[in-house]
Input
Amino acid sequence: MNLDKILAISGKPGLYVLKVQTRTGFVAESLTDGKKITVNLKSNVSLLSEISIYTYEGEKPLTEVMQKIAAKENKGQAISHKEDNAKLSAYFKEILPEYDEERVYPSDIKKVLNWYNTLQAKGLVTDLAPSPAETAEEAPAAEEKAPAKKAPAKKAKAKKEE
Output
């Protein structure tokens, strides 16, 4: 699941996709209604790929938590975030048994489930991140591509010097 361009904007309901970066901020598109909004740099914005859930062993990236929900639900909808707190906690305990119950509040669980269901409704749950074994196989391919990206940058730099 690729959460690199999915945003949660403080004060705005739902999730957004980063579209274009501007000098004063960026343009984001709502996943719920498709409306585009401009967001200034002073807004409190979180990339979903940067969010983690507290566990007793450390922190677990939100991507991994959502992958576990997708595996449990066979990439279908999870339970509603509007269920009572006891039911939500029990469900989350099935997904992530080692989550820190003192530091992860019911409101956090509601957010995660709401976000997961929003992404699932838009068909973004099928874009699962590669497993570590697949990443190791693709690593040489990524290394081959890296010099190709650097070469044009050097040419552009050479042109500026002339």
The chain is about 40% helix and 20% strand. The radius of gyration is 19 Å. Strands lie at 6-9, 16-21, 25-30, 36-40, 45-47, 52-54, 59-61.
